[in-house]
Amino acid sequence: MPKNSRVADRGLPDDWQAGIFLGRIETADGPTPILIRDGSVFDMAKVAPTVSALIASGITSGRERLGGIEVLDSAHLLSPVDLQCIKACGVTFAVSALERVIEERARGDHSVAAEIRERLEAKLGGSIRGTVPGSPEAAALRQTLIEDGMWSQYLEVAIGPDAEIFTKCPVLATVGQEAAIGVRSDSSWNNPEPEVVMIAGSDGRAVGATLGNDVNLRDFEGRSALLLGKAKDNNASCSLGPFIRLFDEGFTIDDVRVADVSMTIEGEDGYMLEGHSTMREISRDPEELLRQTMSEHAYPDGFVLFCGTLFAPTQDRDEPGRGFTHKTGDIVTISSARLGTLVNRVTTSAEAPAWAFGIGDLFSNLARRGLLTA
Fold first, then answer.
1. Helix 94-106 vs helix 113-129: crossing angle, to nearest 10
2. DSSP code, position 251
3. CATH 3.90.850.10, domain 84-92+164-368, yes or no
4. Of the candidates 81, 33, 21, 89, the residue with the CA atom closest to the CA atom of residue 301
5. What is the CA radius of gyration of the chain?
6. Where are the domains of the chain?
7. What are phi and psi of 207, to 5 degrees?
8. In a 3-state reduction of DSSP, which class is residue 269?
9. What is the pLDDT of residues 133-158, one digit of tens each?
10. Residues 106-119: tens digit of each pLDDT
């Protein structure tokens, strides 16, 4: 683990004693939802056997106390969600919009990205940053870009009326704190995407937030947007955690709107990269992203929604002009003052532990434990 990871509290924020947190741990019996409140950790499996059910119940107090926060020191932390659908938004920040256009025009070739970036930034940087998606001004800019031959499918979702919303990975396929995260072994241009992730109930309303890493393959998506599935949905390519911070009097969606996110990448080769993202620069309000996700769709077990990132690393790692890409062994640390710290080590999707515990396995396990009731 990197020297800035936190062990005693397993990534909880400094003000954790003032908040309410949901999570999951692996016990000898199986995956178990836990609640952290008032300095104590509670086993919630007999209250509701899944995090999804706990959120639906609205219960935020525990009955069976596991002990103080120190019980987490040796616990195996799982991703804090279970039956929720995993949804994600892309191109919600001006910087990420430009980077997606660069990938598209470079056809996934990192060697020409720097030249394209300089040209596009000069022409589009200011106008994209100052445009409200779906506004009359956005429509006028769109028409100008079309006439100039500069229109892109990524600019469509950046400033057009419809947000990019996709399914990141299957239910139960996310990984959690200190787990390996995977990039495809045949990818040569990729990066982490540190994001604030909202947790919504079946009504589409956010009940809390956590941190996430929406691992991205720039070469695959850059060759064709139709490769988004291969670029985004691979074994261990989605991490969440360490815990869900539930909304209460001291933490609301307004805190999400102003959340700052920092990220550090530490390589085994001595490489160090630091980045910063702020939700203040998001182009669409989080509640608008939730609304569009729920438009003409339903999620009876709730869903999580990655809000997007403005972090797009361009710092050269090896030879000049190549930019950044991951190497096996990289430690990615994502932090936010009110949400805590999420730490993962990079490997390939082929080498990461295979996803082998699906929905059928979960319900078989809950049935054996006597946790399912009519």
1. 150
2. B
3. yes
4. 81
5. 20
6. 84-92+164-368, 94-159
7. -115, -10
8. coil
9. 888 887 887 777 777 676 778 788 88
10. 766 767 777 767 76
